[in-house]
Design brief:
The protein is an alpha/beta fold and 251 residues long. It is built from 7 helices and 9 strands; from the N terminus they run αααβββαααββαββββ. Strands 1-2-7-8-9 form a 5-stranded antiparallel β-sheet.
């Protein structure tokens, strides 16, 4: 383990230990509201575990990039994100659990950038041409906004899950296509990792390695159903990662 990875794990350990001490006091002080205190503790542990997971993932990735000095080695490392984290993909510290996943943003078509024609090409892999065109126009109309139809002004989709809220988008199509779409792209596609439907629909610059990586970190307290999830999007700049976007949610 490198010094960077060891430091990240120490951060995780320190946070969880400190949190356990504080929240134990909360539980003792609120015996009459045990359920509320337990939920509070689980939410806090989940959040800090998820945050620590992001720190661990970034440290691991930057360490890997720093050692992959050969261009071919670098491309191989970045184009196999499924094995980049190794044993750190799942970590246990006390009663805190965290699970990490990395997504090459460039392997997906950006729903905020793609025009109706590109979206229709992608959707046509999952439905008929007419249905694909109607759904593509619905996505673009939703993003552009139509005040006369009661829609908001032009806005970016903040999550792929918003596809299910778009009038005119069949839920089945949204479900099938969601794994091929992103809202975090920079207009480029990684031809080394993009699927056939994405490459067929792509209209932007083609690259040979990721330009952005999404770190998905889930944290939870063992035995509790509540999970805190963070999606952090980073631009790959040399051997460093630069934060672009950060989303959090409780599940």
């Amino acid at each position: 383990m490198s010094d960077r990875q060891g430091a990240a794990l120490m951060i995780v350990l320190w946070i969880v230990v400190a949190l356990a001490a504080v929240s134990s006091g909360v539980v003792l002080a609120t015996r009459s509201t045990t359920g509320i205190a337990a939920n509070y503790r689980a939410r806090a542990i989940g959040r800090y575990a998820a945050e620590s997971g992001v720190a661990l993932a970034v440290a691991t990735l930057e360490d890997g990039l720093a050692t992959a000095v050969d261009p071919a080695e670098r491309r191989d490392y970045l184009n196999h994100l499924d094995r980049a984290l190794g044993a750190h993909a799942e970590t246990t510290l006390g009663d805190a659990r965290l699970a990490l996943a990395l997504v090459d943003v460039g392997s997906r078509l950006d729903a905020n950038v793609a025009d109706a024609r590109s979206l229709a090409r992608l959707f046509s892999f999952f439905t008929g041409s007419t249905g694909a065109e109607v759904a593509a126009e619905a996505v673009r109309a939703y993003a552009a906004g139509r005040p006369e139809e009661g829609l908001e002004a032009a806005r970016q989709l903040r999550s792929v899950d918003e596809l299910f809220d778009i009038p005119g988008m069949p839920p089945e199509l949204a479900r099938w296509a969601s794994g091929f779409l992103t809202v975090d792209g920079d207009g480029t596609i990684n031809r080394a990792t993009a699927s056939e439907p994405v490459l067929a629909a792509a209209a932007g610059e083609l690259r040979d390695e990721p330009s952005r990586i999404l770190v998905r970190s889930r944290g939870w307290r063992e035995g509790h159903p509540m999970t805190h999830e963070i999606e952090a999007v980073y631009a790959v700049v040399g051997s460093e990662l630069t934060l672009v976007r950060w989303r959090e949610s409780d599940r």
